[in-house]
Amino acid sequence: MPAKYHIHVEPVVDRFLSPKSYVALERDGCLGCLECVKRQCIYDVFKQGKYNPEQMRDSADSLCRNCLWCVQQCKRRLFSRQSNPDFAAMGDEYWTPKIIAALWSQASDGKVPVSGAGYTGPFCGPGFDQIWTDMSEIVRPTRDGIHGREYINTSADIGRKSRRLIFDKDGKTTNASYPLISIGLPVVINLLPFGAVGEGLREAIGLTAKELNILAIRDADELVEHNWPVDTIGHLAPYLRADQPVKQYTKLIKQVRAVEIDDGPKVLEKISEIKNLAEEAVVIVRLPLAPEAVKRAVKLAEQKVETLHLFADYRGNEFEDGNDSAKLSSAANPRFVSEAVAEIHEALIRAGLRDAVTLIASGGIALAEHVAKIILCGADVAAVDIPVLLANQCRMCLNCRENKPCPVEIDNVQVDWSRQRIVNLLGSWHAQMIEVLGAMGIREARRLRGELGRAMFFRDLEKESFGPIFGQRKEFTTEEISKIKKQISKR
Amino acid sequence: MKVRQAPERFRNPIGRYIVLRDPGLCTQCGTCMKTCPAGVFTVAGRLALRPKEWLCPGPCQAGENACIKACPAEAITIRKNPLLNTLGDFRWPVDLLLDTWEMARTGKAPIGDNLRYNLGLSGGGFDRMRLSFPDKPAKKIKPDEVDLGISLNRRDHGGRLDISVPYYGGGMSFGSVSRSTMQARAMVAQETNSLVCTGEGGFPTVLYPYDKHVITQVATGLFGVREETIQRVRMVEFKYAQGAKPGLGGHLLGDKVTTAVAKMREAVKGSALFSPFPFHSVYSVEDHKKHVDWMRAINPAAVVSVKVSTPTDVDMVAVGSYYAGAHVIHLDGSYGGTGAAPDIAKKNIAMPIEYAIPKVHRFLTEEGVRERMTLIASGGIRGAHDIIKAIALGADGVVIGTADMMALGCIRCGACESGRGCARGIATTDDELAEQFDPQWGAQRIYNLYQVWNKQLREILADFGLKSVRELVGRTEFLVHLDYEGREAAKNA
């Protein structure tokens, strides 16, 4: 058995004080009584909190756990709490302030987020919130704190797999062997749709990919420029746009294990050009998710394309037709990435081609559960993008798109700080994946792929449980759906 | 115990409004005291005291505030409490929180629309269902005549166990909650002839006087489980899984393992305690039967409950439990839970209870064993309407957890697990923090809340034309779901 996969997380101090959901207010009028609530705070907020004049924020807000003791016990009622407009304004309807804050905290301590008082969110929401994962009452692998739990393998393979072994008369296998990249987590780092990316973050992404034994897809020119050492470049996959010819990157392609290219009319020629240079390299074809993508995906699989990267926009919506992953979809009624991926997964199964091709899915992968859920829907690997920026304390202000300065100076991060933040985030995701896999009784992330029997969908549950009681469910109109989305993002 | 005022234990209780009386303008004439119907304005001797703003119900006289109108000096201003913007969530919106606190304080239903304290904003499940009252009930029944009692043992073995209300207290262990919390809940269980579960943390001696109303929980860590604790009680609960963290087991952080907790759990102070998942001795229904037989051998009179989470095959699990000899199947849906749990588990693993109840009810009925099995539901039951909805969907009764905590003054800050634990002394074992409230006060609060629920339950059942809550089981005709075409719109929506 290979060495156990382990991600080393360690707390990393924030560079900037992040906006918190609430801010504490203290009015004048203290009479200096002996029962001062400031001394009673069990979190020592008043002792440790300091105002940072440069960032114009008080660290007390980060230390406060919102128990309301000071608000409710001060004799003069001098304390109050208010929603923080800075916090509520972050992100968008998909990348809600809550998601952003959750990712910040995972990046800073690398832990599985834990809280009390039950679930506080909506019954069900759009996108990934339509899916619940199953569990089993009596399962292995067991979870035992004293003896350690049984090992749950999270690795995934990128490339084409032989369907069966063929032996010659001497008992030797005669299969053509295909190049296959094994990664420790079913996650690759995607191209970033935006971000004030500087040298520090670039280097950090490369080092993270190496440390975690995953892949990071990076712009080809950037890789050439950076001149990565041999042991790291294998974890970086150059991305060649349709207009970037292979022959300009000969040296780079010979060094790497995977290359990602755009789909297009000449995609097959481009693949063979790459294979001629580097036989052992896996070629990943980027295919935008759109209503027509299913036909194209099957066609490419028939033509022996070994890996497809199916991408939606960064809110997880499919495109109208071929599009740019950094832009939002303009489709009127886009399907969500999980649905579009499931369709392709099923079509490939019907065509008998599912194992001939690896599916990488991206767009809207925001939380650890999204990785598990997109794999349940049929992807082999999820590609993450914005969470990498959020790990670096990005606030999704999108200033970078207008070339305005980044409020948290992501273009200026130190390599080691940034690397550990991303490692922490993915370390937390790894631990959370294990929680979910363990609950389902699945020992291997690979076995999760397309396991629809271990997923429960809102639509099915409603029909099965409520159909016999309440009849037909009303369909939501598009306006109603967008209203619901807005309500959810407000919290 | 009687319904009695149990005031908030904090100096500045949270209300809907901020009431200000400008001392510069006030002439201390006392008009406001006479006009206010809620007792906001009080005096000590001749001195007007700070307004008790948390009592203010808002515009109390034809859409206006009587005190503002009456005050000759125009000294009173009332505005919304800005703190409310920071309280509440989808499942427990701020109105539900405030009204639950009020019910616990006064033992009376708040003035105003009863949906305000019976609905959340989660947008699905119970929150989209409404009660559907018949135009004319089949029988004319007075609320006082309605019987709320249910029987937990409907099989031909084990002792009889009838409780007077269709709900009992869920398991919160000593370790996760304070001794005062446990004792308060046990006092109420005795007073209302119901039950309360110990959770997996042993049987503290403070609970001995309430033996007959305590459920001993046997969970995978077997903490504090001894022959003696099983023989003490009338009901034993096997916890296979729990809704807040299905399939994950429990984890009591080292900080919470104080000397007392360690002693109770026969463990070492300061070291984290794991309840592994699952029971290492149970991998089949036969193994499970062995468990049930084991309990029955130790305490033949015990009623055995099996607490499980809600996976896809929860119906099969329920039937399996029946054939293993259990009396009660307790489904714990994924949206409840009181203690600390990984956020990823709370939302994503296992189905909400609203789906599981009809599924299991139907399956047990088809199997022909429904009459002999008691079906209990938990995981997100917040008030009287939720209880009615759960029972109408097919449960016999429900289990309460979070609502008890609300009555004790929980504000759902969710920081149960951090450092010394709950700052408000509910979910902590820190000696100093846990001494914040007297169990007697806590019991009164929970009791008050339950009495308001009981009154509502009786009124609703009477309006349905039902004499007993037992007649409501599976009667889905009393429910409508706003997102479905099948029924006419709810009459009280």
Detailed description of the structure:
The complex is a heterodimer of chains A (491) and B (493). Chain A is of the alpha/beta class. Chain A folds into two domains: 22-83, 2-Layer Sandwich (Alpha-Beta Plaits), CATH 3.30.70.20; 156-458, TIM Barrel (Alpha-Beta Barrel), CATH 3.20.20. Helix content of chain A is 35%, strand content 14%. Chain A has 19 helices and 17 strands. Chain A has helices at residues 37-40, 45-48, 60-63, 69-73, 85-88, 97-109, 199-212, 220-226, 230-233, 250-255, 267-277, 293-302, 337-350, 368-376, 386-391, 415-440, 445-448, 458-470, 478-490; strands spanning 22-26, 51-52, 57-58, 79-83, 114-115, 131-133, 156-159, 180-183, 187-189, 215-219, 236-240, 258-262, 282-288, 307-311, 358-362, 381-384, 455-457. In chain A, helix 6 crosses helix 16 (415-440), helix 12 packs across helix 13 and helix 14 (368-376) crosses helix 16. The longest helix of chain A has 26 residues, at 415-440. The model of chain A has no long low-confidence stretch (mean pLDDT 91). By secondary structure, chain B is α/β, with parallel strands linked by helices. Chain B folds into two domains: 17-80, Alpha-Beta Plaits, CATH 3.30.70.20; 143-481, Aldolase class I (TIM Barrel, Alpha-Beta Barrel), CATH 3.20.20.70. Chain B contains 14 helices and 19 strands. In chain B, the strands form six sheets. Chain B has an eight-stranded parallel β-sheet with strand order 8-18-17-15-14-11-10-9. A two-stranded antiparallel ribbon of chain B has the order 1-4. A two-stranded antiparallel sheet of chain B has the order 2-3. The longest helix of chain B is centred in the C-terminal third of the chain and has 26 residues, at 439-464. The radius of gyration of chain B is 24 Å and the shape is globular. In chain B, 58% of the residues are buried. The model of chain B is unreliable at 488-493 (pLDDT under 50). Chains A and B meet through helix 4, strand 4, strand 5, strand 6 and helix 14 of A and strand 16, helix 9, helix 10 and strand 19 of B.
